[in-house]
Specification:
The protein has about 325 residues and is an alpha/beta fold. The chain is built from 18 helices and nine strands. Helix 2 packs parallel to helix 7, helix 4 crosses helix 5 and helix 11 packs antiparallel against helix 12.
Length: about 325
């Protein structure tokens, strides 16, 4: 049974006695920095001088400096930049300023687990990974709750890495919701697997394929959109609230029967074999090498795929329908 810890298990004085550098001010970075600051922690934000996020951090009344200067001044350094850019930033701006007794934190184990970052001896290395996007980490904190976190220790040079990590989780509000003990390996491999086979990759392909099947059969694209994408939120909310059994209790008997009898025909043994292949590629490091190589080469294939996906018919129909829904605030990705 996994170990879960809460506010009462944390010692806030540990993080309150440290100066924390949050490197990055994106989705996770802004939430960590603002939550820590409002918890009473001394925080500085590390951003490159040309970053357009400097203004946002300063507007939040946070002290901003370069990543190198932030690392030099801090006792605890949390790296919250994209996986593909983290190792380069670490080598150039963070590693030269690490001292024995410092703590290096991550919100995802990718670079440490796959050997892209190897911190020096004498430095604690841990991970505090909220299981939700940064804007949710921030919003729930302001509402008095929090997002559950995973906590792992890679190197405990001082003997206090675990306690400090739990104290950090307290500072961002995660210990209000629960902090689950894990490892860098488990967090990294399960996170990538979930993203690829269900949360992002699997769901995206199911939605597009189901939409196309209905449209090709002559049904209106608008009807297909509602049935294959829009209503998904209603089902996910039920799953979130009470698992598969609550979802099945909440839907019609007809839908439940279709779930039991047709679902296994969609997700077949071949699908499960592809899931095992995807997991094996993650475990061997093949996926990590592939993604880092794509990024290092300029990401031409990645960016071309992104543009192509934006032109999928379901995106066009969806944008038109969402514009007619007064309860939604229209959202769209920025231009490249």
């Amino acid at each position: 049974m996994a170990e879960v810890f809460y506010d009462d298990d944390a010692d806030p004085s540990l993080i309150l006695g440290k100066k924390v550098a949050v490197i990055g001010f994106g989705s996770q970075g802004h939430a960590h920095a603002m939550n820590l600051s409002e918890s009473g922690v001394e925080v500085v934000v590390g951003l490159r001088e040309e970053s357009n996020r400097q203004r946002l951090a300063k507007e939040a009344d946070l002290e901003v400096m370069t990543p190198a200067e932030a690392a030099r001044q801090a006792d605890v350094i949390m790296l919250l930049v994209p996986d593909q850019h983290m190792a380069g930033l670490y080598q150039a701006d963070i590693a030269p300023h690490l001292e024995p007794g410092n703590t290096l934190l991550f919100a995802h184990g990718f670079n440490v687990h796959f050997g892209e970052i190897t911190p020096p001896a004498g430095v604690d290395v841990a991970m505090v990974a909220p299981k939700g996007p940064g804007h949710l980490v921030r919003r729930t904190y302001t509402e008095g709750s929090g997002v559950p976190c995973l906590l792992a220790v890679h190197t405990d040079a001082t003997g206090t890495a675990w306690a400090l990590g739990l104290s950090y989780a307290w500072g961002i509000g995660g210990a209000r919701a629960g902090v689950l003990k894990t490892t860098f390996k488990e967090e990294t491999e399960t996170d990538l697997f979930g993203e690829q086979v269900i949360l992002c990759g699997g769901v995206s392909e199911l939605i597009k394929s189901a939409f196309s099947t209905l449209v090709e059969a002559g049904y209106q694209p608008e009807s297909a959109y509602f049935e294959t994408l829009h209503e998904l939120k209603l089902i996910v909310d039920l799953l979130y609230e009470g698992g598969l059994s609550w979802m099945r209790y909440s839907i019609s008997d007809t839908a439940e029967y279709g779930d039991y009898t047709r679902g296994p025909r969609i997700i077949t043994d071949d699908t499960r074999e592809e899931m095992r292949r995807a997991l094996a590629e993650i475990q061997s490091g093949q996926f990590a090498r592939e993604w880092l190589a794509e990024s290092a080469s300029g990401g031409a294939d990645f960016l071309a795929t992104r543009r192509r996906e934006l032109d999928h018919p379901i995106e066009k129909v969806g944008a038109e329908l969402r514009a007619l829904m007064p309860f939604l605030t229209p959202k769209a990705p920025p231009e490249d």
